[in-house]
Sequence to fold (194 residues):
Amino acid sequence: MIWEWLVVLFANEGQCFWCSNPSQKMDHVIPFSDGGLDDLPNLLPICHECNRAKSDKNPVVWLVSMDLCIRWNGRGTPRDGATYKDSSLRDLYLSAHADVLYVLDQIDEVLAEIADENRIAWFKDRYKSYGYPSASYGAPRARAAAGKRVKKGNEAALGALPQRSRDVRGAASTSPVAPPPATPLTRRVARGFA
Fold:
């Protein structure tokens, strides 16, 4: 349904999860070919280029393979073949492992945004009657038409939806925040690699 596409495409501030370009597709976190579900809890906003590059790989396989291709020249020995910081293959793997764990946390944040019941209700209420994407009214056209509505929805949400507060260490606090800040319809998850 168009509303499902919009829930995903406008997550992460409407940007591709991997490169921050405008999102154009819904990507299966666990590929459909590997048994991943075609449901909101398994979909991320992504651009065409990243979708082609990731192909049918899960995020762990894709990240580790990309990282090792960039930082491992394949020459020498497992102790001295790295092009990055004169590292061993073991060091590169441990570094890639830490990056993968970080990205999996970021994926969880975006998936939580997509699964937010208030967001889903907002998009469903406004776009359920549009049905399924078609040649005459596909997801790109719906995304373009929905842009202003989403911006207005974000502005209207300010101060309306509660969000958990964080303490200095970044841990979630169980105490309520007064007044509660908004949970906008779109937000950007910051990513960076060591």
